[in-house]
Amino acid sequence: MPKAGADLLILKLTIVPLALLLFGIAERLHGPRIAGWLAGFPIVGGPLLVFVTLEQGNDFGSQAALGAYFGLVPWLAFTATYAWCSRFWSWWRCALAGYAVWTVLAFAAVTMQGGPRWLEILPFAILVAAVCFYPRGEPSDEEREQVWWGLPARALAGAALTVAITQFASMLGTRWSGIFTTFPIMGSIIAISSHVQYGRHAVQEVVAGMSIGLASVAAFCFAVYLLLQTTGIWPAFGWALAISTTTHALTWLWFKHKTEKVS
To answer: What's this model's pTM, rounded to 2 decimal places?
Structure first.
């Protein structure tokens, strides 16, 4: 393997897993609601899009970013389905239902990418609706114990997803590469672990935070989609990160406002 390829592989195996480890520590310190909101930051999708663009080129990366932007709709559908089902079912039934809904909407999202340009507003409109209307219950202050496997499982899942998507990007094509870039690996790990450890109330908290935080992933992906068409890779991702960070800061203000209203 050439040195450049080996260096890139090392980055794939370290950046996303380390980011997920840091995220897991933040969840343990601040609880599932904050964890759900933090999941909206492009901690997984950002590095994945960088790797895909480096290996496949700017045009491929731009279209993959558009696919990732549309992929937020099935991600949000997964978490909403899981949250609703958690009121009645065990975690594995909730996960099966969530992944079934994700699969259906992933195919729909791929189809929409080949449609009229006005469809690009649809993911944004759905995210706005989720931010405004998803119910936000009172945060729980119950004592919560942590399991030893939580952080290692997230790191391994992040590394596996990164290698798989970048390895098979050319085979998957731009649309499916983008969709899998925003596969709800973060959302599913948080939802399932919260459900198993803390119960259904924690799942509602996670999804409440996530429905707000995903706006910054949407901003990041759409910015990369537009900027890669006119600028180089690093200016495009740099500006996208700045836009995403600003959006995440704004959602924090909204998050606090919503939390204070139900407290």
So the answer is: 0.85
